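Hi team,

Filling in the usual template for the complex we talked about on Friday. All components are listed, including any nucleic acid strands or ligand strings, so the model treats them as one assembly.

SUBMITTER: L.P.
PURPOSE: interface mapping
COMPONENTS: two
RESIDUES: 610
SEQUENCES:
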Amino acid sequence: MGFSEKPADYVESRRRPTSYGDIFFHWLTVFLLVFFAVVMITPFIWLLSSSLKTQINIFQYPPQLIPDPIVPENYVYALTYKPFGLYFRNTLIVAGLNVVAVVFSSSFCAYGFARMRFPGRDFWFGIVMATLFLPYAVLLVPSFIVFSRLGWIDTFLPLVVPPFFGGGAFNIFLMRQFFRTIPEEIADAARIDGCSEFGVYWRIMLPLSKPALITIGIFTFLFAWNDLIGPITYLRSPDNFTIAVGLASFRSQTDISWDLQLAASTAVTLPVIVLFFLAQRYFIQGVVMTGLKG
Amino acid sequence: MTAQTADPAAAEGFWLTRHYNRLTLKQRRTLMGYIFIAPFILGFLLWWLGPAAVAGYLTFHKWNFLSAPKFVGMANFSKMVGDPILAQSLKVTFVFSVISVPLGLVFAFFLANLINAKFRFIAIFRTIYFLPSIVPAVANAILWAWLFNTEFGLINYVIRAFGGPKIGWLQDPTWVMLAFVILTIWGVGGSMIIFLAGLQGIPQIFYEAAEIDGAGRWQRLLYVTLPMMSPIIFFNLVIGFISSFQVFVSALLITNGGPQRATLFLVLHIWRTAFSSQKMGYAAALSWLLFAILMLLSFFVFRYIGSRVYYENPDE
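RESULT (copied from the run log):
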């Protein structure tokens, strides 16, 4: 389901607004829609506009909406001031491993929860749901101690190893819900043909779940791209920084150069927005799946 | 001929295969089930119970990471009681939560109703309303620090253009809370989409029936939309409360906890206690406190609000 799709109850022949109340309500809605659209989009325009201003123009009152002159060099300057290429590579490694881990691990566990019957299953699923409501922040300090004992501080390991163990309660939950919509008969047919449970999971369920897998993959990627608290806690040397930590440290070092900070912020936001437009359908599906099937 | 010799290859094969073949069907199913959920169980033991045990141990110790942990009994807990900084950070977190969660919920619901309208270009509006929620947290923090800038920020410019005063958004302890609420509400796109999906799932026939019975717009909202949406409102409420207790990036990057600790959110306080002051024992105790607060909060939310939720198909 995407934004372009018409709502389920859309009926072409729906009667036109007739009474004065309807007409008033129609225009009120239009007005509010436009008003809030302006409110929501202005920060983006302001971000883009400020990121293209000179140091002098950015501290000008009243502010210019369209920068004069336009300084695209800000971007070059901001992105080379710190090794953003390296940060980008680090982020891709962390995010890529996270996506692989989450896609396979969460679907594997979810298959057990969705399609197998065994004593203790509901107990363990209860634990999955309990960890769903426990935020990351609670475990931050104790996890740090565990990882430091393992000698994992200042490596990517604390960021990439845990997802291989179940891939997060949330993703298990989503995949389980999705698997339950696939008819059991398909799996039974495969079993009669001599397919093992692993085969059913790998050859039947995974290929049939591509939309759900892409959805959790995208959200995992976004999370890794955006996450600050994990990398800032576990990564120490600048060579290991991800984009988020790089941008945060950029801010603390260039406190006054708003033009550069904003150019770097725009550059970091842009890929996310591009990804959104490429995969809009999966974004919406992901958000909706979280809310509706609970 | 017995079942065991029926498949000689298996019987003589790898010892694991032999054991497996001796299991009953039920045992096999149990075994397979546990193999499938094993990654989660292992992960739970390693990355949840393990750290929780470490936190439990450290709670009764004083540890600066360098020397050996020193047993201090309940000292970390008694320290909490008289800690004015902790009291401040709890106050900040609660006030923010109590203001931002209901406001965010109402605003998201309102926007969802707006974009549920049937216009030709509605898809564009949906996209615009959703986009803020996907801006990376660090970029978002920098953007809002700039928008709220006292001298050159856009927000003060607009206020002054309408004849208002110059507000010290990030310098004044009272205003800074409102600034954080505003930037949080800007990103309600996620809950808005969940609301929208819920609205579209309400059968149109309910509205038609209500209309025939003479229900006006307001009554349809009150007696059809709200009851039908209550599970989704509840879901967004729970998610909203949990995330309101986890404010970190914006507090760290926009104000660094200031001014006068007015944005010293609990997670930031714990993080600093552990990684700036190196008080690992106290930080572990504070993590337990956060855990206890979230558990209590969830309990009350489920007990007093969850019981009022209307489920159309309670079995699902």
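MY TAKE: Chain A has two domains: 20-75, 82-253. Chain A touches chain B through 101 residues (CB under 8 Å).

Thanks, L.
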